[in-house]
Amino acid sequence: MGYMWTGLLVLLVFSTVITHASKCCLPTQMEGSSGLSMGYQIQTKGYGTEALFQMAFDVKGKRKSMLGEGRTNGIPFKTHEIDDYAAGKKYTLTNGKCVVTILKTEIFCIQSDAKLLMSIFFGYGDMKIDVDMYLFSYNGANITMSVTKDSRVPVSQHILFPNVLLTLVTWE
């Protein structure tokens, strides 16, 4: 139960971030890796999850895929999640168990009312990447998200819900 809930929570948090008008969206197609660190509480029990995912987005085809593995409170899990926004369905396979649910969100963008916190860069000289960092709220969560300045590829997300802290770092 804990594994499935974790996998669903991760994808729900990641995919429900934007449904409003956007400040910027993802590139038409993108793939990369994402590291996840999350702490949350259910009733009085605390949970910690760390995972690594391969991710692919097809904005034009309205699909997203996450394939990865990790640990929740030291217990390993493997998961593959596919969001089919066009069909309105989410397919989640965790530790051999498949669950199909209704997907009620649109593909990922940064809200138009997001506040630009800062513009920074990673690297040095000709090897640097310019990044914009935004702050916005959605469905009770405070979200800090950074994207590359030129192509709007996600670099990091820090999502804080009551009783849930989620940090995602993405790289190509």
TrEMBL record:
The keyword Endoplasmic reticulum does not apply. GO terms for cellular component: extracellular region; lysosome. The keyword Signal applies. This is Uncharacterized protein. It comes from the Eukaryota. Residues 1-21 form the signal peptide. One of its GO terms (molecular function) is calcium ion binding. InterPro entries: Ependymin. GO terms for biological process: cell-matrix adhesion. Keywords: Signal.
